[in-house]
Design brief:
The protein has helices spanning 14-23, 35-42, 59-63, 83-89, 101-116, 119-127, 130-134, 155-165, 191-196, 217-223, 240-249, 287-306; strands spanning 5-8, 25-28, 46-52, 70-74, 92-94, 147-151, 170-174, 186-187, 200-203, 228-231, 254-257, 276-278. By secondary structure, the protein is an alpha/beta fold. Bound molecules: 2-keto-D-gluconic acid (8YV). 2-keto-D-gluconic acid is lined by residues 52-54, 74-77, 100, 281, 284.
Length: 315
Amino acid sequence: MSKPDILLMGPYPEWDLVELDERYTVHKLYEAQDRDAFLKQHAASIRAIATRGELGASRAVIEALPKLEVIAVYGVGYDAVDLAACQERGIRVTNTPDVLTNDVADLGIGMMLCQSRGMIGAERWVKDGSWTAKGLYPLKRQVWGRSAGVLGLGRVGFEVTKRLRGFDMDVAYSDVAEKPYAGGMTYVADPVKLAERSDFLFVTLAASAATRHIVSKQVIAALGPEGMLINISRASNVDEAALLDALENGALGSAALDVFDGEPQLNPRFLSLENVLVQPHHASGTIETRKAMGKLVRDNLAAHFAGIALPTPVI
Ligand code: 8YV
């Protein structure tokens, strides 16, 4: 039997490519000089897309592929997949929830500690000889015992709150409704009110049209000159222009960001700011988790082509 044809939207690790090549004829869109011509050339055979969270699949790509049956996202976020276009044609969509939750929460906590304690600057202080030449490194801000807000108590948000409680922090959360599994944690419906009571505000929401810029100019102002914003979700959840203004004029103390509008090209204003810690969208970027994500993508594709229930369907 011939192997089904799949379209790969962006690079996967070598260990996944080897496995995919065994079962499928893989067409790498990201290596094509002319994407439109490449899609046209393979349109009659492609039955699946394997993509990544930040790359998704646009309506244009979906419509260019008349034989498309399934889109497997290597990532939990499927906001970049045009779900309406998929629904119109009965195209299935899968993602990789659960397997990456703990790593994403870990990176959020790591960024909070790193930025609050000034660890990047402190390392520079040692390596550039400042420790010898100038003496003690400037004092930074405490983390343990302070207050934290978590915007979005989904899988990642919940794991963040578990870790924050380990630092004896006063933790509250905001979501569209109170969550039964919150275990009595303080619920604050209004994100502005949540920011007002928080020293650290974590953004852990699944992105959608409804959450676009939910971290607004008002939320940022409420977090204030001593506050820190930590985003491990999607850039679209934050009004990035308002964030940059606030970081530049001191209305917001600091930020730790794993995601950016237009990434990997980020607004150059971020690069000259001392009060922002930037990371290259790698919250799920450990070998263990990426292997589990790749396996789940393959398991979903295999289930689809075997005509059995998809392990982790979105639609
Ligand atoms: C990326 C992510 O998919 O899970 C998500 O939604 O954005 C990430 O895990 C990952 O960087 C691979 O591209």
